[in-house]
Write a structure and sequence with these properties.
- It is a single chain.
- It contains two helices and 18 strands.
- The protein is mostly beta strands.
- The chain has two domains: 145 residues, no CATH class; 78 residues.
- The strands form four sheets. Strands 2, 3, 4, 5, 6 and 7 form a six-stranded antiparallel β-sheet that branches.
- The N terminus is likely disordered.
């Protein structure tokens, strides 16, 4: 669901947007260097304010806060669409610890020039957001921002090579240790012909179970 920002302004070469929705705990004030037509980019800051007190709790920076504007000249929030719209801010509990985290757009440095993000998780001891190197790497090395499955507590990434090779990878998070890859779905149609080779790898009790099967391309990819 796309949630829009309700206020924007222009001052001293900076462009400002007030984000009132998207987070249960925070309002956000976005400032970005350049906006031209339907696109904004360049150095940017995200000022997070407590919804109840309006107190500024933290300011995050981006070297390239890149995003598109809708017909009302407003950005979206919390949108993650593969090969399509990805918002400048993503609020979610990325590490499944019960606290809201945030990802801030930082350029187009992921695979195939896609969106890349700096991912911050909330540190309850420091009472502030801290950068997660592991999660940020996932958001730079794959096809844009990763997705989450809160019920299964999985982080899901997507990657590809050309038109005919795709891989979906799932990770779980081990507290105080980090990411643990537990599942891969590889779809390989690079061999030509009318078939796609599908390989499923699943980690069960620390052992990888691998199953491979070929499918007719028209059957496998039918809508």
């Amino acid at each position: 669901m796309i949630i829009f920002i309700f206020y924007s302004s222009f001052s001293f070469g900076q462009n400002h947007f007030e984000l009132k929705s998207g987070s249960n705990q925070y309002d956000a004030a976005i400032t970005v260097a350049d906006c031209d037509g339907e696109k904004c980019s360049g150095n940017g800051t995200v000022e997070l304010r407590d919804k109840k007190t309006s107190r500024v709790v933290q300011t995050l920076n981006s070297d390239d806060l890149y995003f598109y504007l809708n017909k009302d000249q407003q950005p979206s929030v919390n949108v993650i669409q593969l090969y399509n719209e990805q918002s400048p801010l993503i609020f979610n509990d990325f590490n499944f610890d019960g606290s809201e985290d945030i990802a801030v757009r930082n350029g187009n440095e992921s695979s195939y020039g896609g969106p890349s993000y700096d991912v911050y998780v909330y540190n309850s001891t420091k009472k502030q957001f801290v950068i997660s190197d592991e999660l940020t790497s996932l958001a730079f090395e794959n096809l844009g921002m990763f997705q989450t499955d809160s019920k299964r507590k999985r982080i899901i990434t997507f990657s590809k090579s050309g038109c005919c090779w795709h891989i979906t990878t799932e990770y779980r998070i081990i507290p105080k240790k980090g990411l643990d890859k537990v599942f891969e779905l590889e779809e390989d149609a690079m061999g030509g012909g009318d078939f796609v080779k599908v390989t499923r790898r699943e980690k069960i009790k620390n052992k990888w179970i691998i199953k491979t099967k070929k499918y007719p391309i028209k059957e496998y990819y039918k809508e």
